Each structure stands twice: as C-alpha cells, then as structure tokens.
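Loading example: each entry is read as two labelled lines plus one structure line.
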Amino acid sequence: MTDAPHKRPAFEPASELLKPVSRDPEMKRPPSTFAGVLLVLLRVLAGLVVMAGILLNWRNTLREVDLSIEGVESTPEVAEAALIGVVIFLGVVLIVDAALALFILIGHNWARVTVMAFSVISITGAFIQWWSEDQEITITGSLLTLGLDILILLALSSRSAAAYARRKERL
Amino acid sequence: MTDEPRRRRYSIGVAIDWFFFVFAGLAAVWLAYLSFTETFNVGWWGIAVAIAFWVLLAYLVLPRLHRILTTVYVPDYFIGRARTSDGLLGDPVNLAFLGEADQIHAAMGAAGWTQADEVTLGSSWRIVTSTLTRRSYGEAPVSPLFLFSRQQDFAYQQEVDGNPAQRHHVRFWKCPDGWLLPGGSRVDWLAAGTFDTAVGLSLFTLQVTHRIDADTDIERDHIVRTVTAADVRVAITMLKDFSTGYHARNGGGDSIRTDGDLPIVDVRATTEVTA
C-alpha cells in the first residue's frame, strides 16, 4: 500500500488559488490575448481619429483652447504652444499604447499588467465621476471609450490570457 | 511529490491576476447596467444596443461571475461530473477506459468515430461557413469541458445524417498518474459521452448552445456498443451503481439523468503499442 496515492483533505485551502500556474512555453496564443490586442489597437485608432480631428481643424480648435485656458495670460502664442504640447503628448501615448499591444501579442506579462493597470485607473475614475458627481455616460459620449477599457480589461484578465503571458515563468 | 524540487506555494503575480479578474467582472456588470439603461434612450437604435447588451451579459459578464463564484463553492475534486469553462457542472462522466492513447484512437476510429478538431480561429471559421453553405463538417470541434482542472485531451464524434445540429460526441481526459476511481479501481482515461439533440438558446446561461439528450445512458451504451462491435478484443467491465442514479442539470441547463453505471472499456488487448 506504499504506492497508494495520498489522501487529500476534503476542503481546499485558499492558498490553492494562488498556486503558480503551470509552465507551458509551447502554449499557443489564445483568442483572448488576440482579442485584447485588437481592442488596444482599436483604442489607438480612436486616438488617431481624435488627433486627426485636431490637426484638420487646427484654427477652430485653437480658438476653443484660447477661450478655455483660464488664469494664465491667454495669447494666441500660448494657446498654440499648449495645443502643440497636447498633440505631442497624445502622439507619445498612442505610440506607447501600440507598442504595449505588440508586446502583449508576443506574450510579455509586464505589458499585459501595465495595460490592465491603466484600464483599472481609468475605469475607477469614470465610476467615481458617474457615482458621486452624477456625470452622465451616454452612448454618444464616454460609453464607447469606457466600454473599450472594460472589454480590454476583461480580455486581458481572462485565465487563458494570463496563462499565455506567464507560460515561460519558472515554478 | 516529495522528490520534486521545492516549489513556491503561492505567486504574487497570480494574486495580482485575481485582482484584475474580479475587478474586470465588477466593471463588466457596471457596463452591462449602463448599456441596459442606454437601450431606452436611443430610439430604434435601442434594438442594436439591446443585442449588444445580451452578448455582453451572456458571453462576458455571466461567465466571469460564474467563474468567480464557482471557484468559491464548487469543489475541485472528482465528483463524476465535468465542469464547463465557467466552472459550472457539465456533462456526467459516464465511461472509463484502460489503455494507451493510440489504442483508444484506433478503437474509436475502427468504430466509426471521427476525432474533433481543436477550437481555433480556422475551425471556428469553418463552422460558420459550413453552417451557411449547409455542408457537413464531420470534424467540427466540441466545446471545452474540464476534469482534473484540465481541458479534454481529445474528443470524438459521429454525425447524424449530415445534420449539423445533432451529433454523438464523447470527450476524453487522461487520469493523473496513480489516481484511483472512488471505490479503488484504477483506470487510465475517463470520458463523458452525450448526444446533442438541437441548437438552442439556453435559458440557464442565455447563450446559444447545443441541447443534449436527457438520457445520457443511451449515448453511453451507444459508445460501448459501437466500440465492442468493431473489435471483439475490447473487454467491458461494468461498475454497477458507480454513482447513484441521479437527475441533474448540466452547464447549459439541460436536464440529465443516469442510472449511475460506469462501464470500463479495456482496449489494451487491441493493438500493440508502437513506442
């Protein structure tokens, strides 16, 4: 009877849930990872559309910016500099976002965790504004970007996407 | 167990994953609520938004919530039932096999069964095209079910008169080394065979799924009959009343009933394993 399998306790300790996942370097890319990458790229695309809108209507946007900056002395030069700064910042964010999508695609866990962390921050911010400041979230307004963020988080946090990102981790 | 190098008992990375997993579930509930309320604000577009709401609820929100809750309350040891990818109880385990994988492949092939493709983008696309063109797809993949926390190793199926909605199918799982059935019998493989009767909307998960025939014993006996008829060297040992006869529902909400017998199909004598 020495080779009889060990008996297991009838309950499962909570630490069982935190066991490292099994290592499987040969794992194929699951659809959830692919969907997550597509959604991130969709977010980049949406950002590019916004940026194109600013660049094509440069003068109109400039006038709005001119009106909305308060406190500082609002000259056309200051407004233009601010707008250029915003466009450059947006461009950098989009490039970083696209790069993260590629790193998720080839299966880097840090990229997945980074994207999820920013999604959590953005979702939490939207929720606080909706809950305590009664900001409306409508389909023509922020529902689409919020939905994109939540879908990205759902896809990348799924167990198959997590297993793929951690497929090379040592136990 | 004791010979293995000492491994970490827990992983902080996995804990972080759990945080994101649960947070995403809660956020998805909120998104479903938002899109539901928005349904009434956009006129005729509300129909499209309502469909989006249903897809969101049935395929993303409910599975995630089931996954979180079943992790808490459904035991993960062997209870004679496979589990769906959401952790719900699925088809009953109603067959056991003795033998190597190659011998099972040979026995099932000789008995007129076709191995199911794995679920990939390619095979999913083929399901869509074969449904639209009404062509048969004999190797159509089966949905994943889990036993021993693992997806099935392979699955076999038989088409019914080229009807894509109906099919016989059986999933196979390799037992862990040294694992014994309740009662002490040693088997190499466990299998769950059910008969798909139609494609329909499950009122349980709200998803479009195959409905299965309630009397799973008919399918079990059909598998045993086809395999034994194809090769006389296949031996059957019946574990009478392995589980008590029961009525239950599977993960799609279809009722199932069984007398609880478990046939052990011994294919070890069929072919020499070429190592």
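The helical segments of chain B are 12-38, 45-73, 101-110, 121-132, 216-230.
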